[in-house]
Design goal:
Number of helices: 4
Radius of gyration: 18 Å
Strand order of the largest sheet: 1-7-8-11-12
Distance between the termini: 33 Å
Strand content: 15-25%
Largest sheet: 5 strands, mixed
Helix content: 10-25%
Order of helices and strands: EEEEEEHEEEEEEEEEEEEHHHE
Number of strands: 19
């Protein structure tokens, strides 16, 4: 049972509305302050905004800024991982098939499979297609085919997938932010010759600077102001890039704790 279905009893006639997230949608956003997640049923998770680095217990990727955290133990989820719907319909990165949320990763023998968007291994939460082999991290689901990012003044468009089965340098594009080449989807500027790796775009949405140490090794006071500013700008760009789609859907339809915006939040 998906974690978010636990809240359906308190949502009245909206019970069925959380079963699928259809793109695009444009509901009015509602603030979610606290949820109960089935992967951590003993304690509620509270929405917080902290500059410290953390590793999401769900998808195993790093993050900073907004998250849902347990106040009694070291359990933390990205905001998007905590609020992911059970099913995605018509997602801009895989519109031909339905995508289903899975809490446990799928392995290919002794190795982990990779995300078809960022090309990083999937070690936790994911969305998977039942009709084909496509899969992606929940945070990659926050990306769209065209959107703006705070690190570049122009609109970026996502290029078609490259051949990730080959390690040839011809399939690797130099990123304008991390200054490295790697496999995975890439954004291209519609005005200039600027490229942004999808994995770097995801890091920005997760509140991370593109050059960051591991949470286990880092000084948790690293670039506090910058990390907080990045997550605010990334979420703002998300709404603009997706046309008020999945992020607002998460806020409206999932979890309990609906209420007014706290004056302390930006």
């Amino acid at each position: 049972m998906h974690p978010l279905l636990k809240s359906s009893a308190s949502m009245g006639n909206n019970k069925n509305s959380i079963i699928e997230s259809d793109f695009p949608t444009s509901p009015q956003p509602v603030i979610v302050e606290e949820i109960t997640h089935y992967t951590h049923p003993k304690h509620p998770l509270t929405k917080v905004n902290l500059p410290e680095l953390f590793t999401c217990t769900g998808c195993k990727d790093d993050g900073s800024g907004k998250r849902f955290a347990c106040q009694q133990c070291d359990f933390q989820l990205h905001e998007f991982c905590a609020l992911s719907p059970p099913i995605l319909q018509n997602h801009p990165l895989h519109g031909q098939h339905q995508l289903v949320f899975h809490a446990k990763p799928k392995q290919a023998g002794i190795s982990w499979l990779k995300c078809d968007v960022c090309n990083k291994t999937i070690k936790g939460f994911s969305f998977r297609c039942r009709a084909c082999s496509f899969q992606m991290h929940p945070c990659c689901a926050m990306l769209s085919t065209e959107r703006n990012f705070p690190v570049h003044p122009h609109t970026l468009k996502l290029l078609p997938p490259l051949n990730t089965s080959s390690s040839s340098t011809d399939n690797r594009i130099l990123c304008g932010e991390c200054k490295k080449t790697r496999l995975g989807r890439v954004y291209l500027c519609t005005v200039c010759d600027y490229h942004l790796h999808a994995v770097c775009a995801k890091n920005l949405i997760n509140g991370l600077a593109l050059e960051y140490p591991s949470p286990g090794k880092a000084d948790h006071d690293w670039k506090k102001g910058h990390a907080t500013q990045v997550v605010f700008e990334a979420v703002g760009g998300l709404f603009e890039g997706l046309g008020q789609t999945i992020a607002e859907y998460f806020l409206q339809n999932i979890a309990r704790g609906r209420g007014s915006t706290r004056s302390s939040e930006g």
